[in-house]
UniProtKB/TrEMBL annotation:
Pfam families on file: TehB (PF03848)
InterPro entries: SAM-dependent_MTases_sf (IPR029063), TehB-like_dom (IPR015985)
Record keyword ATP-binding present: no
Any Gene Ontology biological process: methylation
Organism field: Sulfurimonas marina
Keyword Transferase recorded: yes
Protein name: Methyltransferase domain-containing protein
Highest classification ranks of the organism: Bacteria, Pseudomonadati, Campylobacterota, Epsilonproteobacteria, Campylobacterales
UniProt KW keywords: Methyltransferase, Transferase
Ranges of residues in domain Tellurite resistance methyltransferase TehB-like: 30-162
Single Gene Ontology MF annotation: methyltransferase activity
């Protein structure tokens, strides 16, 4: 965990990410009931802050204490510094779960179980791409074609797409995006 924490702290300092909210979240957050939200691998809180401004109480989870220090102090934002390789989600606790640019296949079943009935999942991360793309080089952090869709079978799919995109640092990338609701 310490190596991951140091690596992410360094990355946030040396290669800062944009501060603007994720467009997928901005477009589809209205699908969720305002209540409790979870921002998985929240980084510096760009999506945490947006959800908070829309009235959500937000659990912001990240391994980087530096990134979490960039999130404003507020009684409705709970910062959780932890390693997502070992962290477990609470059952039926969230009206909205956001997972952007992070992949932990271990968490997929937990994410489904952590949604309250009618809870909404907004998930976007990298998929395998070839050519001039700057996706993570470790295949463990890349989805295969349609993998995200299959991982959340059982939820009502509102939106799904795989497309070329530009990452937080302005590089060409390929992503899968999913918005789904728990029945």
């Amino acid at each position: 965990m310490i190596e991951d924490k140091e690596r992410w702290n360094k990355r946030h300092v040396e290669k800062p990410m944009r501060h603007s909210v994720e467009p997928l979240l901005e477009k589809y957050m209205k699908e969720a009931n305002v209540g409790k939200a979870l921002d998985i691998a929240c980084g510096i809180g760009r999506n945490t802050h947006f959800m908070h401004e829309q009235g959500f109480e937000v659990d912001a989870v990240d391994i980087s204490d530096y990134a979490l220090s960039q999130i404003k102090e507020d009684e409705k934002i709970k910062k959780i510094e932890t390693d997502l390789d070992t962290y477990n989600l609470e059952l039926e606790n969230y009206d909205l779960i956001v997972n952007i640019n992070f992949l932990s296949r271990r968490l997929h079943p937990q994410i489904k179980d952590a949604l309250k009935p009618e809870g909404v999942l907004i998930y976007e991360t990298f998929i395998i791409a070839h050519g001039d793309f700057k996706n993570p080089s470790n295949p463990e952090f890349l989805l295969r074609k349609n993998e995200l869709l299959h991982a959340f079978i059982g939820l009502d799919i509102i939106y799904y797409e795989e497309r070329d995109d530009i990452n937080l640092r302005g590089e060409n990338t390929r992503v899968a995006s999913l918005v789904a609701r728990k029945s």
